[in-house]
Amino acid sequence: MGREEELEKEIEELEAQLGDREASLPAHSVRPDQMLAIEELETAIEGKRKELDELRKEKQGSPAE
Asked: How many domains does the chain contain in total?
């Protein structure tokens, strides 16, 4: 599996974790640690997406093999 596929899989897994976290939030009285965990997942997803975008840009810029 190439790095691009690995990043896509990692993003999917992080998004699933984020969805689970958000679904488990209570309607009221959200604890700070719950919000922190969500923010950390969002940051991780953003980082992986940037890395994937950069990888794809490099791939497009390289000559065809």
From this structure: 1
